[in-house]
Design brief:
heterodimer; A: 107 residues; mainly alpha; B: 92 residues; Helix Hairpins; 85% helix; elongated
């Protein structure tokens, strides 16, 4: 498998579109992380990148490698499922820790 | 590889690099510890996406495994950091 894998034009267009849209969504999420004011607003923004961005880019990778190797390559589904399952868990534990810290500071 | 796909890979890498810069800023200047942990969470997800894009660019399937390992270890370390923020120690 070398660098010059030629894939059909429609699949290449779809891959390019999904890549750029996924990366742009991730950048919007990161900008929200940078710009929003309080912690509880900021914690929502990167979930855009972690769910939508990961789904778009992994689907683009699936399309590209399926077309390049002439067989269905579906192992990027592992990353999608894992990230979609773990993102809410992570953020819930983090926000619970933040609430705990704020409450102990206010007392 | 068609030039459009090559350009879109370059654009996606630049956008993901900017997103990583935003997350790094939040790690460095986050006013409190939980802001830094959220920045770290965003940073590892962005680096995983960058590896996936790089794997498409080089045409090799092996970068997928590195991306999967980054996702696994990043989740575990973020949960450990959150547990540390909650209790002051990780393993009680």
């Amino acid at each position: 498998m070398n660098e010059a894998a030629e894939i059909p034009a429609l699949a290449a267009t779809l891959t390019a579109l999904l890549l750029v849209v996924g990366a742009a969504t991730t950048l919007i999420g990161a900008l929200g992380l940078l710009r929003l004011r309080t912690f509880y607003q900021r914690v929502h923004a990167p979930t855009l990148g972690t769910t939508l961005g990961t789904a778009f880019i992994a689907i683009a990778s699936m399309i590209y490698f399926s077309m390049a190797e002439m067989r269905p390559v579906l192992h990027e589904l592992l990353i999608i499922i894992f990230v979609i399952v773990t993102t809410p868990i992570t953020l819930m534990i983090l926000v619970r820790a933040a609430v705990f810290r704020d409450e102990t500071e206010n007392q | 590889m068609s030039p459009m796909l090559a350009w879109s890979i370059t654009i996606a890498q630049i956008l993901l690099g900017l997103a990583m810069a935003c997350a790094t800023f939040r790690i460095l200047y986050g006013p409190r510890a939980q802001d830094r942990v959220v920045g770290f969470d965003s940073l590892y997800v962005n680096s995983m996406l960058l590896l996936l894009v790089f794997g498409i660019g080089s045409g090799s399937v092996h970068y997928f495994e590195a991306a999967l390992i980054i996702a696994l270890l990043g989740f575990v370390s973020t949960v450990a950091l959150a547990k540390f923020l909650l209790r002051g120690e990780v393993i009680e």
